[in-house]
Write a structure and sequence with these properties.
This protein is an alpha/beta fold. It has two domains: 7-128 and 140-234, Aldehyde Dehydrogenase, Chain A, domain 1 (3-Layer(aba) Sandwich), CATH 3.40.605; 272-458, Aldehyde Dehydrogenase, Chain A, domain 2, CATH 3.40.309.10. It is 36% helix and 19% strand. Strands 15-17-18-13-12-19-20 form a seven-stranded mixed sheet, with helices on both faces. Helix 8 (276-294) links the parallel strand 12 (272-274) and strand 13 (307-311). The longest helix is centred in the N-terminal third of the chain and has 30 residues, at 63-92. The chain is globular and about 70 Å long. The structure holds NADP nicotinamide-adenine-dinucleotide phosphate (NAP).
Length: 543
Amino acid sequence: MKLNGNLLIGAQEVGATAGSMKSLNPATNVEIEPSFAFGGSAEVDRAARLADDAFDSYNNTSLADRAAFLERIADGLDAITPELAQRASLETALPVAQLEAEAAKSATQFRQFATVVRQGRFRQATIDPAQPERQPRPRMDHRSQKIAVGPVAIFGASNFPISYSVAGGDTASALAAGCPVIVKAHNAHPGASELMGRVIQQAVRDSGLHEGVFSLVRGGGNEIGEALVDHPLIKGVTFTGSEGGGMALFRRAQQRPDPIPVFTEMTSVNPTFVLPGALAARGAEIGHGFIERMLVTVGQACLKPAILLAIDGPGYIDLRRAMTAPVEAMQARTMLTPGICAAYRKNVERQRNAGAERIAAGGEPQGAWDGQAVLFEVDGARMLDDPSLSEEVFGPAALLVRVKDVEQLIAIARQFRGQLSATIQLDRVDHPLAANLLPVLERRTGRIVINAFAHPQEVSYASIHGGPFPATSDSRFTSVGMSSIERFLRPVCYQGFPDELLPEALQHDNPRGIWRLTDGQLSLAAIAHDMEIPSPVCECDSI
Ligand code: NAP
């Protein structure tokens, strides 16, 4: 597929209106062809108007047609996987094999959401049939379902340039919900973004959908993102990236005349608690496993295990040695962008200035944007004194915390801000301590893992990739897994409707055979005859 660097506004190709850029190969520090167009608020306005025009027809597509559209996107991603992985690798320095796996994950996510759409449960069809005989006053027929919130803006991540980007889980779940999507392409991988954008644009065409269902915009500063968040026709936003960027966009959306939901996923250190029984029995194994996961994608993963806490005692020295050895053996590797590399080096200095001791370091950087692996150690008292030690260092760095006793371990756990995940390494003998730790962690994280590590994230019905602030801006939702569709839905209640005016999901005969909650009972059935709506008008007293 040929890249031409244009913005994709609906079916249209739009050239530069506000400058252009070339992507940088961070491994060689050399720019790559072609030039990629920047747009501005005029292009955002055009994309938002098209998305709004597309909304009614897209939100009302049959479940079968919408599922088929998602599957077309999956097929399109499969067809370009080698090319997509090559381009993304040039732009991010991530290995081709890893990016091929990411592309496969993306295609799988679209297919998983096609299943979610066909099942129709996301509608949460709920029916409280009329009770005309009820005393002291009759009940009118009430039915509710969830519909799409409207056109949404998606800010993709830099660190997973396929599965959290243009064709990532946010786009898949928003399209599954029935929302037209405008993606703000991340400037760290514009070529990969265009390839994925073209696949979705083609799927829109092949599915006979309104062109406004999908657009891809790009800009040279914050202006384009701000214009998206401000646009009155945009009704929701998702974002993956820095806490500063995420919160700037979140606050902006709350200052609109009509505030809209913004779901940001920002920062997490995913603490690992090694309890004494497990430490004594397999300290070395745990330490090695932790560092292995920490170094995945040069430490640039939201689920990177960054902080390990263990109570000093039998096994601690083995654990420590098992952590230092692989760090010392690790060559410096290219980071995603010059900006991320510069931030990494600054944050490593911050850890040192906060009193953490550097106990291991990998090979010195060779390339301009190489990140050197580093392991710090600090004692529990210092950790409690300086909460900055608990902040994210995005890159191949980790912190080992030598904890004095159980009380100190719990006190440190209480000090953590919101996390995407936390891990407990335990043996049976540790269960009483784990029982005390669990309520502390439940309040601070979206996922608790026992005797494994949080990375990689499963994409399934029970998956949760979320957590209290600052892991995300809304702890009630997940950005990964089938229930991530919830971010893009809102409930509507239909009262006293004749059957032919009801949405399909709520009609008497349940024509699509979807799960519904009828008078509190979950079933696939049509509504029992004696529950039929007697009349669109009910003689109800006012409440
Ligand atoms: P970022 O700088 O926050 O950028 C993410 C996206 O949002 C980009 O498209 C960026 O546009 C846009 N953006 C950021 N701030 C904005 C603002 N104030 N107004 C309008 N648009 C804005 O994130 P990044 O470049 O991917 O990575 C930087 C840092 O984020 C990392 O060092 C790391 O700390 C953190 N990070 C965390 C995670 C995680 O999952 N926890 C993932 C990735 C990154 P431009 O492309 O034009 O800058």
